[in-house]
Amino acid sequence: MISFTKWTTVEVVLQIPPAFPVCTYNLTPIEQLQPRVDYKEYFTDVLGVVSVISHVSSLRTRGRQAEVMKRTVTISNARDTGPTVDVVLWGERATAFPAEQVHRDSGSSPQIIIFVGTLVRSYADNVSLSGGSSCKWYINAPVPEVNALRASAEPNHCPVIWDQGKVAAESTIAAVPEHKKLKDIKYLHPFENKKKEWLVIVKVLKIDRSWWYNACKKCLRTTKPHGDTYKCTNNSCDSIGSPTPRGTRYASPLKTTLTPLSLSSLDGWRSASLKKCGHPHID
What spatial distance separates the first Cα and last Cα of the chain, rounded to whole Å? Predict the structure, then answer.
């Protein structure tokens, strides 16, 4: 992963040096993934023998209107009692993964993959890797780490299997909240419907002020551009420096998932919205 700053310069190199590496990675052992859960400063790269592949499934996760493609690839460190981890590929990465080829080639030899550009996630105390658009893979790459893992995996090699059960299980987990109108759920008993969720869409007709603004770190008043930095608009403050992004005191979501327990503060939200936005149309 490369981090760019305002001081970064980029130079085009037309003649690629002969020793330029084809594969770039910084491997983290599977058993050391837990401390990196939700760590986003750098991506995580892992190496493993493929044991299970799921077919591509189409899911609609919470908060998304469009469906997203998903595939799970399970890898291990080749030891019988060693840990395994699921690499969950999303979107184009799920469909681009050569699952059929990996499954076919596993009939004769272990399929060893280096996944780069993943993020470590945790769901129900199970650590997994999430592979989005930044994720890439090297299959049976001619590098020392792959050769060493292959040597340890060959004595107990088993072909890759298709996991038919993951699709059904994942579809159940990622249930989509039902669309409802506010009037349909406002008076429901909160404890009788404690675990239910609905998707409610509201239409805001007018916004008098921005929902987010660049706030002065000293007095939290609005700042305005001042050269290559920002200056507070409060005459008694006149602080100059980097601002802090800050939300307004009125919440005005266009789309939100509601539960009956969240409706206890709904009247306050509607009141605040009316003060801020005039008279919103509620679908």
Answer: 44
Alpha carbon of 163 to those of 67, 79, 123, 129, 271: distances in Å? 21, 21, 19, 17, 51
Three-point CA angle 24, 29, 34, nearest 5°:
120
pLDDT at res. 272: 43
- For residues 170-175, average pLDDT: 47
Work out the mean pLDDT of the chain and round it to a whole number. Answer: 79
220: left (phi over 0), alpha (psi -120 to 50) or beta: left
Architecture of domain 30-173: Beta Barrel (2.40)
Nearest residue to 26 (alpha-carbon basis) of 118, 88, 97: 118
The average pLDDT across 211-227 equals 82
Domain boundaries, the chain: 30-173, 177-210+248-283, 212-246
Model pLDDT for residues 78-117, shown as the tens digit of each residue: 766 678 999 999 999 999 999 999 999 999 999 999 999 9
pLDDT for res 181: 82
In the chain, beta strands by DSSP E: 44-54, 57-59, 68-76, 84-90, 112-123, 126-131, 136-139, 161-163, 178-179, 198-203, 212-215, 223-226, 229-232, 240-241, 244-247, 255-258, 281-282
CA 258 to chain centre: 22
Calpha distance 75→86 (Å, rounded)? 6
